[in-house]
């Protein structure tokens, strides 16, 4: 491997330390404790793991965590009523509805019911519009974490060619907006993109958010490029024993790490930064709600 490893796990730990220090000051000086409410509908095992880990890390940095677990057949009106109560609750500064929701629930209706000021996932239509127009908003956690790692590695991103593979509302599109905001020349690639390998080969920065295991091979990567692998894919790992599995990204780490200048691993790259940014967004929401200085 010749690429520098971008250690998202270690970076996320420093972000959480800063969040914890800010939370401690908010409590001591202003008597305010930031609170994050997480709503989980149904019993999807992966979502349950995420929610548990978010709750634990929220408490670890000194914030209040409010978990709301609702049955899989919860009527939409009940979920909207809970969101209304959380919107009104002055102890709750951030609200996160764990996605995906069961099929009978209208995801955009639910997300847009959240008070935009408490929308720490940054998915509310108002926050999407604010981000697109370069105004103060809540920024989606996964792309924000990617941007922080890129800024940390490069310093300025100005003028760099960036290719984002994936155009989802939660990763690809906001990632492209953020890179544009940092003056990259941005290409968004997707399943209809022609000559994808050649498009990717132009990039100084590659952000892969495709959802396909090891999709981007090393020979698509320009030598020295920075590769941010958002993908989380579980694949069979017979080498670990029968029925075992392991997590891999959307980038073929083995071949890409021989060519790239820097690369994030999976696990231990984007994932931990996503949760750290969620905590940071909750502190930001709390500071804005109380008219206090936001963390830098
Ligand atoms: P989506 O399925 O919503 O989007 C995937 C995107 O990849 C789509 O835009 C799709 O294009 C594009 N795509 C699919 N196949 C191809 C192809 N053959 N060539 C080019 N583009 C293709 O996924 P998400 O954005 O929600 O997530 C992407 C990955 O990131 C997943 O692995 C997910 O688990 C992971 N993830 C990780 C997070 C973290 O914290 N680390 C957080 C969120 C997601 P089209 O639009 O044309 O269909």
Summarize the structure in words.
Homodimer. It catalyses: (6R)-5,10-methylene-5,6,7,8-tetrahydrofolate + NADP(+) = (6R)-5,10-methenyltetrahydrofolate + NADPH; (6R)-5,10-methenyltetrahydrofolate + H2O = (6R)-10-formyltetrahydrofolate + H(+). Helices cover 41% and strands 16% of the residues. The chain is an alpha/beta fold and 296 residues long. The protein has 2 domains: 30-117, 3-Layer(aba) Sandwich (Rossmann fold); 141-272, Rossmann fold (3-Layer(aba) Sandwich). Strand 2 (35-41), helix 2 and strand 3 form a beta-alpha-beta unit. The longest helix is centred in the first third of the chain and has 23 residues, at 8-30. It is globular. The mean pLDDT is 97. Bound molecules: NADPH dihydro-nicotinamide-adenine-dinucleotide phosphate (NDP). Residues 142, 165-168, 170-172, 189-193, 196, 209-212, 230-233, 270-271, 274 line the site of NADPH dihydro-nicotinamide-adenine-dinucleotide phosphate.
């Amino acid at each position: 491997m010749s690429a520098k490893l971008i250690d998202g796990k270690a970076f996320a730990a420093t972000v959480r330390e800063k969040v914890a220090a800010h939370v401690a000051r908010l409590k001591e000086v202003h008597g305010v404790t930031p609170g994050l409410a997480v709503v989980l509908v149904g019993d999807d095992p992966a979502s349950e793991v995420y929610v548990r880990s978010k709750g634990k890390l929220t408490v670890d940095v000194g914030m209040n965590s409010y978990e709301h677990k609702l049955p899989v057949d919860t009527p939409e009106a009940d979920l909207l009523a809970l969101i209304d109560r959380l919107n009104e609750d002055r102890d709750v500064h951030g609200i996160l509805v764990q996605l995906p929701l069961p099929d009978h629930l209208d995801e955009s209706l639910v997300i847009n019911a959240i008070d935009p000021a408490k929308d720490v996932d940054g998915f509310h239509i108002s926050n999407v519009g604010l981000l697109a127009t370069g105004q103060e908003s809540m920024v989606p956690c996964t792309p924000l974490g990617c941007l922080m790692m890129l800024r940390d590695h490069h310093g300025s991103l100005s003028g760099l060619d960036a290719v984002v593979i994936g155009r989802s509302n939660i990763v690809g599109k906001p990632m492209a907006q953020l890179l544009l905001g940092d003056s990259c020349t941005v290409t968004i690639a997707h399943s209809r993109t022609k000559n994808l390998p050649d498009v990717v080969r132009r990039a100084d920065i590659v952000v892969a958010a495709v959802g396909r295991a090891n999709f981007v091979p090393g020979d698509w990567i320009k030598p020295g490029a920075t590769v941010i692998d958002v993908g989380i894919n579980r694949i069979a790992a017979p080498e670990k024993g029968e029925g075992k599995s392991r997590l891999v990204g959307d980038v073929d780490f083995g071949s890409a790490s021989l060519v790239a200048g820097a690369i994030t691993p999976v696990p231990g790259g984007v994932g931990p930064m996503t949760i750290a940014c969620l905590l940071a967004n909750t502190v930001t929401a709390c500071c804005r709600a109380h008219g206090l200085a936001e963390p830098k």
